[in-house]
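Structure first, sequence second, as always.
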């Protein structure tokens, strides 16, 4: 909204509100004038002018004019003083104690599970953060928009209804309220102003004339022929459709069409053409015609006169003006509401607010928003008026809902969406029920909107339904749910009557559902079209909780419950007429008969939808629970009751399920399978399957047990199966019978055994949930979310899990990945019931398997008998009689007999298991009864029946005898333990029967004895088990060994690779130790004359592709390591630096000390023959071309491929160059030491270089440095002197190695600089050195942050990658022209030796010294190059070269550190006066002198030394790594350990440095002094010392991912305050946090796209280019997901490092539990970054989750 009038205190809002038009103002102030008339005149005069330029409006200008011409005078009149001053006063006085903040889509809302009355009660983030609920079990969710904050609503919260902010307002309000109350004059003015304003708004919004205005707004001036063609928004046409239609119809540019479309989508309408009436009319027709072409309906277009358009626009502006005003004072709100509700006397016309409501569906989007906000800010802020509004709302409810159902806008834009704000308020809901009969109103609305789905029998049929329309109907159903959400505690007669009336009305809906969508078994042909089943099931799901709530409401009042039961019973009976016409038939079995009307599920129509029957079942258990059942006969007479009829339909439904399982309904297609699935699924089962079981239990409790079972047998169509066996050969039919028998037995088990329903037995809701959880956890340990998903939710979306979970389970925390799980407590295992009725078939067998395995593990028998069930409540106590009735005995005996007689095809093991289960239930029941009451009172005689002969035949046997025989049936070996258990039970019951005449003590001791018996048996069994277990373990071990042998090489290799870091570290350490011990005599010094020998073993590697081994040798064919080269900003501190996208002009020789962007080379450590790799790569290219595999995740053009073994993303290979073992003769070396001092070495080098330059100068232009020989004395030295200290011939590499050297070097160059490959480019060697140095720095950094020792703790892949990289970098020189290498060397040396006058040499503070060191060391051998022979320095020469180069670089680095730390403030180190401190002091004096005092001499020596010692560490560590991998000299042991103390000394010793580093200066003073002078004199250095520029401090800061808050809602808070930097609209944003630098970005939105190299990139992608050189890590805050991206095309999602208290992540905040930072997981992300594995992770994730291909990462 263009609401520029922000009246925050002190805001300069007056800019456009200058009190212009003074005469007019005066007139307004006149008391006597007619306000209405003047107001309209004023509008008529100004409005058309202000909004004249509709096509291209200047919004700011418009707003200015509105303020000046209309609003300012209006406010002056209203307030009687300056509006700004007045409103500021009013605001400060604090107004409402209701927050009332209206949510926009995407905003986070909070609800408290402990205190909210229902889940629709929510808080805004501000209120939440200031409320007590912050420390409760809260939930966070994303608003869909349209709701508002309930802070301050005492009815919404059981506790803490006010946040501290609003509490303050309310506590101080009584006192201040008097002050802030408007004075009578203002109230009077308001009463005059508001009616006119409101009337104008209403009139204009519902104005339908296109051409004319109301007469009072028509100005006398001539009417201009100026019209607009206005296009309206709808939900049918896509963005692209509209753009297309506009382009065609108006012939406009794409850009303009897009502009229009965006505006239409946002505001709801827009003028797309201005002109004369005719031309607009023409455009209208054109648009309609074109839009009709692309979609079914035309777009909604109107032609409006410019003045009409203007007034409608202004009406909205006035609406938002009022909206603002409302927030200032309760008096304004009340006056406003009064006027809105005022009905014209004697008129039937609706009041203003109702008029608007009724017009809502006709308004465009923008107008609706204003209207709804106005309702929120006025009516909903005043409880009294909210009630009155609700009454109006319900008055027009039907009409409003019907409008909504035919509307084409989303629900959030409909006024009907406000229902939740009223219906969920308990007192309001009760008021609406009592006074407005809202339940009936809603159900009647439903009955009126649903008839189009009624068939000829008045049952619903949703075939061919429209999903959209039905979704709108659901909204009405939801309203019903809202009204019912809080159960009344107090019933009045009126409430009871009204509720019952509503209930009866609701039963009418259920009647239309009872038996709807009947199906008939398809025989012969498969059905042609699967019918639409989803709608009916979806409605069932919607109704589930409403049905439960109705039942609960009924149950809270006995009178009501009985009356409701009567109504429901009547309704069921009315629907149970089916089959009345048929003649009854008679069925005999075991001397019992059943008379019933014939019906076959397999032949007659059947329906799965029986909500009436199920509601009745629900009411019945509630009758039983409350005890009201004793009065049932007063309401339903026994004759009417007809229990057989009640059971009939649910039974049919269960039979249908059985027949589907028996595959009898195969030809009915998938739709039936799905329905059966949902019938039993957790989303529906409470009001479907569960209630059907209850209905059977009701049947079993009220019918004769034999009759009941006969009915079961008949409906299962199994009557024949239990008569004499008819020999049938039809295998399919037998199988079918067997499944049906199993299904029926299972249902019988449930009918008798499932008693965990309040009312059926005396259990509580908690007991029920506990039992559900126990059975879930008996399958396996589960995550919190998995358990939640498997439990039914109540109307408040709660499962009740938290209240009980700790009683039955223990929580096991998650590791770095995965999630936390709950494990069942041992004491709960005894509750396990194998035939738990909510188990699916798979769950059943999984649970059985798990439990048997567990018992086996504990050396116990495998019997899993049922746990003793709770006692039935009195109303259901008769159910158990079906266990010991004749028909049941017959069934059990028949099945056992079949098993014993080995008629294998007529029984199954599952069937026998169920028979055994039923036997156990019978025995348990008898035992329990016997233990409770004396024998003679127990009529339940299961034992007796089971031990009685079934018939008088000679071969007759009883159940007990059959069981004995069963033990010998080989197929039933697995059931033996269960059979034994049952036999023991028989024994126990027998004893109880016999001994019950004795005292109870005896009975108890008998059971004790039985237990003792059990235990000796157990012991024997245990022994047997243990032996078996031992044998099994032995077998397992052998099997494991065998399979280990068989496992192929790749597998083992992969395993090695995947080992954890720690394990690797240890292995390496051991390896190192071994080599150390063998070389124990050798010195562990890498540089100089005392240099130790290279420890280079023979390396034999296996190619992962051809599996052949090969030794790595110079002259052999090349072997390579797969590798990935990438640009990296992982080490920089300064991410705002603008990186160049292409490196065409970059000079990479010198690295800036901040390490802004390096080139990292990583490897997964897998070795291949170069030839094998090339073949592999070519094959892949070929494959790619042939298959046109569009979704290729790697870019073959750029050399990308996946490592054939580990599938890491690679883009090149590193050739493996063997280390040339070197050993020096220490005597020779000592001898050389006598002559080759640093000074002399420098001279020799200088001469050599100048010699080259002279030589080259002959050929080409002089561009090599001219030398100043100052201080270099002896010029007698000549060009060849350098060779005199020892040379050797250069290494000869095989051509294949050379080829790979070139290939890899070119890749580094290409990737590192983002340029086209060019093998001849002079920068190739620079890049080689640079990546070598940078990669070492990355590894050093990683080891340090992880606190690992420098050597021996690298992963294998890092170790072999680094080794190969350093050796490659040393060898690469040989493939480039030596002149070129020399040129680079000279430039590098130029930094250290300023007497080499080379142009562009950076100052000491502008280079990274380690890069210089690596470059200089690797390029130095080029100085040995002679025309004819390929020479390189001998070992001794190298040793000195390395030593002096390193010392020079170190001296320079120390100087860098000292200078850059000049302004460092003192640290906590205590001063001392050590030798080092003194040396430091004297060094500082020199520096001070050379910088002409810029360097302060006052810094104490000890502090300088401290800085140097700390600052130089990373450099020394890098150097040690570098020289180790270059030379192969073993490091001292201290570096293999993680100790701070030893490290520095060991490093100094390894690198031939004095531990007092300043001694180096002393030692070389003569040589160094001039260098130091020049270093310090550099203008750059001086400017830094003067504080004019900032130098990098050492040690450099190590990078970490940004600090994240512990509590996720802090982040959400940040996100809520996020404002897009580029746009000011209030649309939903996707704030995204860069985890590298902490920048908050506006993602996935056109406003923040950037044009980079001609491509539109999203905010994230373009930020990543700069922040992470293309690779970056973001946190999508609203979705709680991490996004990794690389370049423009790749990315993946990664779980955010936040866990809820159950150890689970919550992507999308779907579950909404409080989330807390998990440090380990965040550290894992940090490592992903620092190890440069982000690209790898993306590739891996893209390979597994193909979905992400569709995503346009570029626009992220
Ligand atoms: Zn709030
Ligand atoms: Zn609040
Ligand atoms: Zn709370
Ligand atoms: Zn190979
Ligand atoms: Zn690999
Ligand atoms: Zn960033
Ligand atoms: Zn933006």
């Amino acid at each position: 909204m263009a609401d520029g009038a922000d009246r925050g205190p002190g805001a300069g809002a007056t800019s456009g509100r200058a009190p212009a038009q003074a005469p007019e103002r005066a007139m307004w102030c006149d008391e006597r004038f007619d306000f209405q008339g003047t107001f309209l005149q004023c509008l008529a005069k100004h409005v058309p002018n202000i909004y004249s330029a509709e096509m291209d409006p200047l919004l700011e200008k418009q707003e200015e004019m509105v303020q000046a011409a209309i609003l300012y005078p209006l406010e002056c009149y209203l307030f009687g003083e300056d509006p700004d001053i007045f409103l500021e006063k009013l605001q400060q006085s604090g107004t409402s104690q209701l927050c009332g903040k209206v949510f926009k889509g995407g905003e986070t809302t909070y609800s408290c599970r402990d205190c909210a009355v229902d889940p629709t009660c929510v808080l805004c983030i501000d209120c939440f953060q200031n409320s007590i609920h912050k420390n409760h079990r809260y939930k966070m969710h994303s608003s869909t928009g349209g709701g508002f904050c309930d802070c301050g609503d005492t009815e919404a919260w059981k506790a803490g209804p006010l946040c501290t902010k609003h509490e303050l307002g309310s506590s101080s309000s009584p006192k201040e309220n008097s002050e802030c109350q408007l004075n009578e004059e203002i109230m009077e003015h308001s009463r005059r102003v508001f009616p006119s304003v409101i009337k104008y708004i209403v009139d204009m919004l519902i104005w339908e004339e296109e051409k004319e205005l109301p007469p009072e707004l028509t100005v006398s001036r001539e009417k201009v022929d100026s019209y607009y063609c206005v296009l309206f928004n709808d939900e049918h046409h896509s963005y692209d459709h509209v753009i297309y239609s506009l382009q065609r119809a108006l012939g406009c540019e794409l850009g303009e069409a897009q502009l229009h479309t965006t505006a239409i989508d946002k505001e709801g309408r827009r003028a797309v053409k201005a002109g004369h009436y005719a031309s607009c009319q023409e455009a209208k027709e054109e648009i309609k015609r074109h839009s009709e072409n692309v979609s079914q309906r035309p777009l909604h277009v109107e032609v409006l006169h410019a003045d009409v358009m203007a007034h409608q626009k202004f009406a909205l502006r006035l609406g938002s003006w009022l909206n603002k005003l409302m927030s200032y004072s309760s008096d304004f709100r009340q006056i406003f509401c009064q006027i809105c509700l005022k009905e014209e006397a004697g008129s039937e016309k609706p009041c203003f607010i109702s008029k608007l409501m009724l017009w809502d569906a006709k308004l465009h989007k923008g107008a609706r928003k204003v209207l709804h906000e106005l309702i929120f800010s006025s009516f909903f802020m005043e409880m009294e008026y909210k009630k009155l509004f609700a009454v109006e709302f319900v008055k027009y409810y039907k009409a409003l809902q019907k409008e909504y159902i035919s509307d084409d806008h989303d629900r959030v834009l409909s006024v009907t969406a406000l229902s939740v704000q009223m219906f969920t308020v308990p007192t309001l809901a009760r008021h609406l029920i009592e006074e407005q009969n809202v339940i009936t109103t809603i159900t009647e609305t439903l009955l009126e909107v649903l008839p189009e789905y009624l068939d000829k029998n008045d049952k619903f049929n949703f075939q061919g339904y429209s999903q959209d329309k039905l979704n709108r109907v659901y909204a009405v159903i939801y309203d019903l749910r809202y009204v019912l959400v809080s159960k009344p505690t107090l019933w009045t007669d009126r409430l009871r009557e009204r509720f019952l009336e509503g209930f009866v009305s609701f039963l009418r809906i259920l009647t239309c559902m009872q038996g709807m969508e009947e199906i008939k078994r398809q025989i012969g042909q498969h059905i042609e079209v699967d019918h639409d089943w989803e709608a009916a099931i979806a409605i069932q799901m919607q109704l589930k909780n409403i049905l439960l709530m109705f039942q609960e409401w009924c149950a809270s009042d006995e009178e009501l419950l009985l009356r409701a039961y009567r109504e429901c019973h009547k309704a069921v009976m009315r629907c149970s007429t089916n089959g009345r016409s048929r003649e009854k038939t008679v069925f005999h079995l075991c001397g019992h008969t059943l008379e019933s009307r014939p019906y076959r599920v397999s032949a007659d129509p059947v329906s799965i939808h029986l909500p009436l029957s199920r509601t009745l079942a629900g009411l019945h258990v509630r009758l039983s629970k409350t005890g009201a059942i004793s009065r049932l006969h007063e309401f339903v007479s026994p004759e009417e009751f007809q229990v057989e009829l009640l059971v009939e339909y649910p039974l049919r439904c269960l039979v249908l399920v059985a027949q589907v399982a028996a595959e009898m309904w195969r030809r009915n297609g998938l739709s039936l399978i799905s329905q059966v699935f949902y019938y039993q699924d957790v989303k529906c089962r409470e009001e479907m399957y569960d209630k059907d079981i209850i209905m059977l239990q009701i049947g079993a409790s009220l019918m004769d047990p034999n009759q009941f079972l006969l009915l079961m047998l008949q409906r299962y169509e199994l009557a024949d199966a239990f008569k004499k066996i008819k020999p049938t050969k039809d295998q399919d039919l037998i199988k079918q019978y067997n499944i049906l028998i199993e299904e029926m037995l299972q249902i019988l088990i449930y009918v008798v055994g499932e008693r965990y329903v309040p009312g059926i037995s005396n259990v509580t809701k908690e007991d029920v949930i506990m039992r559900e959880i126990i059975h879930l956890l008996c399958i396996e340990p589960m995550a919190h979310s998995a358990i939640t998903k498997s439990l039914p939710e109540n109307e408040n979306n709660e499962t009740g899990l938290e209240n009980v979970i700790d009683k039955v389970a223990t929580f096991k925390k998650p590791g770095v990945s995965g999630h936390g799980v709950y494990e069942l407590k041992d004491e709960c295992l005894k509750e396990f019931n194998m035939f738990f009725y909510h188990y699916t078939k798979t769950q059943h067998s999984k649970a059985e398997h798990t439990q048997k395995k567990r018992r086996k593990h504990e050396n116990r028998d495998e019997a899993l008998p049922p746990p003793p069930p709770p006692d039935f409540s009195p109303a259901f106590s008769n159910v158990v009689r079906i266990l010991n009735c004749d028909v049941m005995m017959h069934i059990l005996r028949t099945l056992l007999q079949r098993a014993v007689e080995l008629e294998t095809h007529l029984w199954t093991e599952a069937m026998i298991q169920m028979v055994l289960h039923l036997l156990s239930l019978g025995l348990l029941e008898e035992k329990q009864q016997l233990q409770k009451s004396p024998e003679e009172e127990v009529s339940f005689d299961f034992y007796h029946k089971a031990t009685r002969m079934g018939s008088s035949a000679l071969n007759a046997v009883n159940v007990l005898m059959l069981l004995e025989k069963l033990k010998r049936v080989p197929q039933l070996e697995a059931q033996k333990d269960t059979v034994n258990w049952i036999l023991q039970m028989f024994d126990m019951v027998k004893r109880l029967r016999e001994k019950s005449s004795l005292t109870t003590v005896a009975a108890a001791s008998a059971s004790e004895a039985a237990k003792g018996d059990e235990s000796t048996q157990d012991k024997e069994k245990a022994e047997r088990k243990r032996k078996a277990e031992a044998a099994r373990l032995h077998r397992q071990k052998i099997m494991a060994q065998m399979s280990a042998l068989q496992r192929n090489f790749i597998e083992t290799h992969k395993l090695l690779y995947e080992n954890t870091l720690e394990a690797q570290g240890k292995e390496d350490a051991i390896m190192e130790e071994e080599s150390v011990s063998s070389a124990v005599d050798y010195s562990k010094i890498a540089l100089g004359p005392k240099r130790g020998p290279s420890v280079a073993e023979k390396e034999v590697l296996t190619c992962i592709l051809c599996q052949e081994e090969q030794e790595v040798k110079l002259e052999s064919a090349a072997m390579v390591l797969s590798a990935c080269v990438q640009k990296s900003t992982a080490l920089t501190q300064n991410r705002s630096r603008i990186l160049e996208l292409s490196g065409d002009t970059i000079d990479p020789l010198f690295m800036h000390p901040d390490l802004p962007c390096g080139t990292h080379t990583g490897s997964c450590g897998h070795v291949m023959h170069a030839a094998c790799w090339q073949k592999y790569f070519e094959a892949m290219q070929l494959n790619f071309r042939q298959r046109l595999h569009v979704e290729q995740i790697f870019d073959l053009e750029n050399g990308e491929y996946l490592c054939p073994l580990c599938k890491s993303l690679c883009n090149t290979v590193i050739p493996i160059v063997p280390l040339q073992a070197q050993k020096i003769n220490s005597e020779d070396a000592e001898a050389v030491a006598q002559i080759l001092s640093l000074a002399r070495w420098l001279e020799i080098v200088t001469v050599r270089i100048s010699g080259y330059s002279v030589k080259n100068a002959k050929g080409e232009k002089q561009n090599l440095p001219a030398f100043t020989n100052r201080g270099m004395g002896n010029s007698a030295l000549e060009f060849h002197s350098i060779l005199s200290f020892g040379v050797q011939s250069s290494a000869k590499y095989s051509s294949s190695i050379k080829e790979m050297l070139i290939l890899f070097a070119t890749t580094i160059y290409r990737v590192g600089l983002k340029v086209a490959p060019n093998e001849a480019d002079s920068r190739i060697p620079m890049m080689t050195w640079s990546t070598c140095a940078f990669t070492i720095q990355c590894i050093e950094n990683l080891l340090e942050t992880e606190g690992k020792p420098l050597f021996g703790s690298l992963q294998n892949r890092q170790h072999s990658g680094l080794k190969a990289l350093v050796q490659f970098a040393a060898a690469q020189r040989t493939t480039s022209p030596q002149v070129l290498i020399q040129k680079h060397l000279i430039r590098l040396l130029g930094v250290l030796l300023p007497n080499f006058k080379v142009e562009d040499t950076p100052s000491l503070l502008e280079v990274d010294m380690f890069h210089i060191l690596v470059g200089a060391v690797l390029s130095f051998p080029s100085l040995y190059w002679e025309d004819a022979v390929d020479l390189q320095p001998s070992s001794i020469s190298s040793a000195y070269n390395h030593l002096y180069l390193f010392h020079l670089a170190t001296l320079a680095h120390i100087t860098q550190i000292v200078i850059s730390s000049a302004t460092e403030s003192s640290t906590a180190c205590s001063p001392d006066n050590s030798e080092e401190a003194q040396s430091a002091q004297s060094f500082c004096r020199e520096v001070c002198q050379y910088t002409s005092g810029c360097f302060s001499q006052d810094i104490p020596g000890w502090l300088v030394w401290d800085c140097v010692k700390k600052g130089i560490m990373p450099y020394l560590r890098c150097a040690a790594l570098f020289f180790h991998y270059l030379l192969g000299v073993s490091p001292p042991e201290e570096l293999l350990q993680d100790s701070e103390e030893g490290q520095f000394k060991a490093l100094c010793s390894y690198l031939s440095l004095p531990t007092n580093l300043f001694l180096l200066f002393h030692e070389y003073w003569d040589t160094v002094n001039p260098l130091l002078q020049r270093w310090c004199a550099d203008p750059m250095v001086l400017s830094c010392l003067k504080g004019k520029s900032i130098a990098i401090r050492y040690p450099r800061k190590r990078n970490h991912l940004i600090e994240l808050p512990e509590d996720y809602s802090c982040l959400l808070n940040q996100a809520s305050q996020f404002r897009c930097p580029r746009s000011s609209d209030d649309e939903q944003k996707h704030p995204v946090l860069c985890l590298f630098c902490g920048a908050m970005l506006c993602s996935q939105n056109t406003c923040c796209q950037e044009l980079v190299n001609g491509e539109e990139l999203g905010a994230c992608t373009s930020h990543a280019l700069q922040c992470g050189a293309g690779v970056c890590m973001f946190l999508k805050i609203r979705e709680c997901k991490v996004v990794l991206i690389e370049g423009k095309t790749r990315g993946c999602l990664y779980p955010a490092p936040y866990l809820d208290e159950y150890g689970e992540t919550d992507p999308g905040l779907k579950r909404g539990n409080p989330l807390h930072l998990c440090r380990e997981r965040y550290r894992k992300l940090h490592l992903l970054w620092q190890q440069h594995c982000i690209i790898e992770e993306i590739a891996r994730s893209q390979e597994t989750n193909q979905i992400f291909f569709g995503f346009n990462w570029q626009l992220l």
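Margin note: Residues 1620, 1622-1623, 1642, 1645, 1647-1648 surround zinc ion (ligand 7) (CB under 6 Å).
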